[in-house]
Structures are given as structure tokens and as C-alpha cells.
Amino acid sequence: MQIPSLHTWNLDYQSARLLQTGLSARLDLKPIRVEPSIIAGCDVSSEFRSRRFFAAVVLLSYPDFTILEETAAEYMVNFPYIPGLLSFREMPALLEAWRKVEYRPDLIFCDGSGTIHPRHFGLACHLGLWLNIPTIGCAKNLLCGEYDEPGIQKGAWKKVCLEGEPVGVALRTRTNTKPMFISPGNLISLEQAVNYTLKASPKYRIPQPIRAAHNSANNARRYSATE
Q1: Which of 43, 105, 179, 183 could bond to 114 as cystine, CB 3.0-4.6 Å?
Q2: Total domains present in the chain
Q3: What is the CATH number of the domain that holds 170?
Q4: What is the Cα–Cα distance from 40 to 211, expressed in whole angstroms?
Q5: Is residue 81 part of a domain?
Q6: Residues 46/52, Cβ–Cβ less than 8 Å
Q7: Are 182 and 150 in contact (CB under 8 A)?
């Protein structure tokens, strides 16, 4: 994929926060108008406290989840781990993997937050702006905000609110398991983000595209260790 540059990555902590605030105003959270036929998941893997990251992108047909394409990239990360600034740590590696992608997906599932974020600009929002593709943030843990526990059945959800404003939902993607924290990234509505996440989670808590990308990133890291 050809990916135009949105900004440089040589930023300090304060500059990164200010950039998030400015870019959040450019998000478009209107509904998708065309049903996706190709969806994607992306994820990053690394050893504990390692600066060497392995990013993977997996494209799947929708709704049957046949894998169409896999790419991976290795990247040395310089930005430190700071809660709320995950995208500045993982995005450079992810973009390297995305540049190798041949097909353009209609929808991307990200292992991270979208608008459930202190500045309403998590990794899924950041990636969505870079690629200009609809993105959904699917976080395993809550970054910020408050919510009431949803019912135990798959499909149950409760709003996640930050300072009284709804920013996403706690969604039960599998009966009697911990909820996922779902929020739109860019070019999709919250309602659609919830619906597509449920459809992309036929068996497990983690949506199928993210599971596939997680396995691909781990395989890339393990393969590199054996070289």
C-alpha cells in the first residue's frame, strides 16, 4: 500500500499529547455505507522490555474469515512506554507492515483503543487517519473511563463514559467471559463498531482478525529468534 505521511515520529512526550489533541478533531465517526468484503487485523509482538517490535497485518475475506494475505515487519522502537501514547510506540512498526500489504481492506480491527482514550485518540484512531480506512479499537483492558458491568450473555454491553461523555462500550463478545472495550477509530460509528466486532467474534473473546494478527506477529518474532 502507498501510505502518505501524516506527521513525523520524532516527538517528545508533550508534543505527542498535543498532536493527539489536534488530530482528534479530524476524526470522522459517521457510519460505513458499504458492507465490507475484506477485513483486517493488526498487532505487535515483542519480548519483555525489548525495543525490537514485530508487527503483523492479516487480511481476511468477510464474512467467512478466509485468510487472503499476511505481512510482517521488524522495527526498532525508540519511544518509551507511556499510557495513552501507545500509538507512538507501536505505529511505526505497524506502518512498516502495512506498506507491504497488496490488497486494501474495507475495515480494520486494532488491538488497542479508539476513542476510549484521555484525548479521544487511541491507536485505532491514529491508524485510521494514517490509512484513511475505517478502524475499530478492540482493547482487552480499559484505558480510561467508567462503566457498569454488562450482562453475562454474548452481545450484552454497557456504555463506557469519560467525564460523563460516552466514548465506547464494554461488550461481551463471548458468554461468561470478560468484556472487550470497543470504540470507533475513524470512518465508522460506535454502533457499527459494536456490531462488526460481534460478527467478527464467532467463537472467541478476541475478534478473529486480531487473533490472526496476534499469531502472525508472534510467529514472526519466534522465526527471527531462530535465525
Answers
A1: 183
A2: 1
A3: 3.30.2170.10
A4: 11
A5: yes
A6: yes
A7: no
